[in-house]
Amino acid sequence: MDSQRQSKSTAPDNLPKMEDITHFLLELDALKHVERRNYITGGTRRENSAEHSWHLAMACWSIAEYFKLPLNHERLLKMALVHDLGEIDAGDTYLYDSQRSEAHHTEREGIHRLQDERGNGIDNLAKIWEEQETGSSQETQLVKVVDRLLPFLLNLKTQGGMWQMHQVTRSQVLSTQAFIKKSFPDIYDWLIQQIDVAVEQGWLIDA
């Protein structure tokens, strides 16, 4: 009986903390509502940014292990998971959109909003986001490379998908992938081969 009374008396004190925690968890859930420009494999619907973040984290982890890269896996996965959180406020901006730089400012503001939300237990959320956004570590480089690789793959698997819809050209794709040559030449060489295939198939405009 005494333990039962004690449990009842402490429960109300715990409720505000759980309300704060669940408030933040629901703030994160909003990323599921952000539609990206790529269709999932099979082309039945567009992927959302939460799905992309999971895919990005798993792909970074797998590639890091496959190539036996000397990097910090915990740091890598955290960067991948926070990579698109700013889109909760900014929405998704297409890779070839001229307004991408403006969207980054809105994303940064969104990250700082999340950092200050009640119930957030991640003290360095904004710091990790800034590192993946502007850093030069091997972890940062890999996140950026894989973030380019995944939508590229989805366009290949959907026979040009968004490339055809937006009349994307070979030169546009080459421009957005160029930085990969220095960071991960093996991945870059494969991308170049696939770009040639995409042009041959009519999925990319040869210009």
Keywords:
single chain, 207 residues, mainly alpha, Hypothetical protein af1432, two-stranded antiparallel ribbon, 68% helix, globular, disordered N terminus
Q: What does this protein look like?
A:
The structure is a single chain. This protein has one domain (2-200): Hypothetical protein af1432, CATH 1.10.3210.10. Mean pLDDT is 91; it is low at 1-9. The protein is 68% helix and 4% strand. Helix 2 runs antiparallel to helix 3, helix 2 packs across helix 7 and helix 3 (73-82) crosses helix 7. The chain is mainly alpha-helical. It is globular and about 65 Å long. The chain is built from eleven helices and two strands; from the N terminus they run H-E-E-H-H-H-H-H-H-H-H-H-H. It has a two-stranded antiparallel ribbon.
Walk me through the topology.
Elements: H1 2-29, E1 35-39, E2 46-48, H2 49-66, H3 73-82, H4 87-90, H5 100-116, H6 125-134, H7 138-157, H8 161-165, H9 170-177, H10 180-183, H11 185-200
Antiparallel strand pairs: 1-2
Helix pairs in contact: 2-3, 2-7, 3-6, 3-7, 5-6, 6-7, 9-11
